[in-house]
C-alpha cells in the first residue's frame, strides 16, 4: 500500500512556513504541563487551536478530545496522542524549561510538573498533522481522526475516554496509530517493529497481617516485618525459576511500609509490587505465583488473617499487528529513506494505547521517534532532564503522522 509521494509533499508543503508558530505553541504546552486527568488548560488550548483551524472537535470526558476531518470516500485512519505530564521537577537546562507547580487533586499537595515523557511533542505532532490534512483536502480522501488522550501516565485515560462514549464520538477506524518520542533511537529516526513493542504491566498492593506485640516479647505476636521480608526474597524465585529463560519478565518490590517504632511489632505490613512482561500468559502466571507465594508465607508465619491483593495501574500489552505495521514501515522507508527508519527493540515501558483499538476491535501500529541528536544528551523518559531537541523532533513527529496516515488516505 504505497503512498502518493507527490500528495504527501503537498500536504507537508506548509512545514517551513508554520515552523516558528508551531515551536512557539510547543513551548507554551511545555511550560504549562498538567497531571493525569487534570489536563484542563491543555485540553482547552487544543480545542481552541482546532476550532480556529475549522476542524470539528468533540470533548470526551473532562479532558479527552476527538478531532475529525471527513473528506469523502475512503478509509478511516485514527491517530492517538497522549497529553498528560508527570509530577517531576524539570532539570533539562532548557531556556524554556517548565517551572510549573500544580496542586494534585488526589493528594491535595503542590508538586512540580513537567513533560518529562515527551507528551507535548505527541500532541503538537498530531495538532500539526490535523491542520496539514485540513489545509490540503485535494490531496487525499477518507477520514482522519485525532484522539487527544488524557492520563496515559496512570493507565486511566484510554479507559476514561471509552467509559465516556468515545465509540460514539468518532467513526470506527480501519487502523489506529500511535507514536512516542524516545531516547533509544537516533534523533529524527523512526523505529517500528511487528509484535510486542511495549510490555504489559501491573502494580499490586499486598497487605499482610501479623499480631502486634512489644519488641521485647516477640513470642506473643506475629511479626509482619519478618513476613514481608521473606516474601520479598521468595518473589525473586518467580522469574528465576518459574518463567522460561526465553521470556522477558520482571517482578519488582518497590516499597515496604510497616511499623512506627523500633520496639513495637506492628500488626500489618504493606508491599507495593510491579510486574512487566511481553506476554499476557507470562503476566498471568506471575500474578498467580505472587498470590500463591504470599499466601504460603503467611500460612507459614501463622498470620492471623488472609492477605489482601489490590491491582492498579494495569497496562495492556502493546503488540503491533503485522499488516498495518508493514504498511507504516514501507511508507516511512519510501518517504524518509532507509537511513530514516530502523527496527525498534521492544521497550520495557508500558502504555494504554491499545485499549481504544481493542475496544473498536481494529488493528494498530505504534512506532518510536528519536528525540536527541547527540546521544550524550539522550536521557531516558521520566528522567528530570528528559526534554528532546526541539528540532528535528517537532517537524519529524508531524511528518511521521502524515506519511503513515497517507499510506491509507493517498493510495
From TrEMBL:
Which Enzyme Commission number(s) are listed?
Answer: 3.5.1.32
The free-text note explaining how the cofactor binds reads: The Mn(2+) ion enhances activity.
The record's InterPro entries line, in alphabetical order, gives:
Amidohydrolase, Bact_exopeptidase_dim_dom, Peptidase_M20, Peptidase_M20_dimer
Query: Annotated Gene Ontology MF terms?
Result: hippurate hydrolase activity; metal ion binding
Known Pfam families for this protein? M20_dimer, Peptidase_M20
The leader peptide range reads none
Q: Which cofactor does it need?
A: Mn(2+)
What NCBIfam families is this protein classified in?
A: amidohydrolases
| Name of the molecule in the record | Amidohydrolase
**Protein species of origin:** Corynebacterium uterequi
